[in-house]
Amino acid sequence: MSKQISVIGTGYVGLVTGTGLADFGNKVTCVDVDKTKIDMLNHGQIPIYEPGLKELVDKNVRERRLSFTSEIDTSIKEAEVVFIGVGTPSKENGEADLSYVEAVVESIAKNLDGYKVIVTKSTVPVGTNRWIKQAIIEKSGKDTFDIVSNPEFLREGSAVHDVFHPDRVVIGYESERAKEIIQDIYKALYIIETPFLFCNLETAELIKYASNAFLATKITFINQIANFCEAVGADVHKVAKGMGMDGRISPKFLHPGPGYGGSCFPKDTKALVDIGNKYNVDMSLVKEVVSSNERQKKRMVEKLERLVGGDLRGKKIGILGLAFKAETDDMRESPSVVVIYELLKRGAKVIAHDPQAIENAKVIFGDRIEYADSEYKVMSSSDAIMILTEWNQYRGLDLEMAKKLMKGNIILDTRNLIELQRAKELGIICEGVGRK
Ligand code: NAD
Ligand code: UGA
Predict the structure, then answer these.
(1) Which of 120, 158, 265 has most ligand 2 atoms within 8 Å of CB, for mutation?
(2) For residue 394, pLDDT beyond 70
(3) pLDDT tens digits for 228-253?
(4) Domain residues for 47?
(5) Which atom of ligand 2 is nearest the CA belonging to 208?
(6) Which atom of ligand 1 is nearest to the CA of 263?
(7) Domains of the chain: total
(8) Known active-site residue 229
(9) What is the CATH number of the domain that holds 369?
(10) Is the residue at 206 inside a domain?
(11) 153 alpha carbon, closest ligand
């Protein structure tokens, strides 16, 4: 039987998973405190850029399985299952900020009537689900609910695909009743034989952090190897390919770049170090990953500085790509933010292009940088170009045109999109990461 679900927090995760759950046949209300977001959704607009999402939202709204509201109290009262999908950003000291989760817990406790399953989808430190359970009991005086930890593994840019084809669904649970309800919600995935992993709450919480930290470590490892390649004249792509041919290693997440960014790897690696400290467990490997990744971003600016002759003052630098990866407008912890601030600090002038992230960039940089509506406008009269995001349109860059438009002839390609030989033939000095 279809379940009435309330998804609290309609961001990158809440909106995509809420829509996916509706498409699985459930009745879903996505809730957010941000009324502008809810108004947009109620007018058929999608507040984020995520390929394929609009079509899916439209379909499920049309078929009356999906709706949007800022009435959190009503939504919780009406739901049998409440998903928590609010943000858990980093505090200054790296610890996960649980204030949004705490606010949702207050609302749930206030509106608890009858049996409900509370499902945490937000990435939360080990022990948080147990705390949520206790807090709701204390605040409401009731224990007519079960708690489930169901961490999310979707990637931005391919989130819609990931919701329908997850590698696994992790369910941390305590009661058989809740387990059955969750299995029913995810019936559509059961049918296509998606692997489900059932465990206790702490295990589910740790699987999420361990997975993100491991992927971040893999990227950091290949970035360090890329830097090694530059020192000795090796080609990092061949090294990664050769490593990846070993089934135990796998070729995935071995692409070197300007350092990982995004709303999760940076905050989750820092949070894991913080949780380790709290439990007195050695997380020194992850700690080093965090620092090495910061160095990698700065290293890109140092590389560019060397390429332009040691002084960035007064140089006009064209940035291609602001989002932390392609196919998203998300700029949270994007390497571009560190790179651009560093360029400005060193006296450079910056003009930037991104197919989707310009509006988000304006909120961060305001009028400290210029914005261009095409990659070729960025090139015009630039001393050097820096490619920071692997958008497909930059892969097919017209290098002849670039050479004509640019004042200088330097391209720092931090995503290794450009054919170096072709650039050389045109008289462009192009450097990538881990190949020369
Ligand atoms: P987000 O910032 O895009 O969305 C969070 C939403 O929650 C915002 O729209 C905000 O207005 C809303 N909100 C805050 N407090 C609220 C409240 N009290 N009631 C209702 N709504 C409230 O965040 P996100 O990227 O969707 O991430 C959410 C969680 O999912 C995080 O813990 C994150 O680590 C995890 N996660 C994210 C991704 C991803 O790709 N972004 C993937 C897996 C897991
Ligand atoms: C990541 C994980 O892949 C998801 O499984 C997880 O659910 C999510 O974090 C989360 O917890 O929020 P996401 O941040 O959307 O997803 O994007 P990724 O594709 O993982 O890329 C993260 C960063 O690593 C980007 O800056 C990307 O450019 C970089 N990256 C990725 C590399 O530099 N090299 C690679 O080989 C892969």
Answers:
(1) 265
(2) yes
(3) 999 999 999 999 999 999 999 999 99
(4) 4-199
(5) 11
(6) 41
(7) 2
(8) no
(9) 3.40.50.720
(10) no
(11) 2
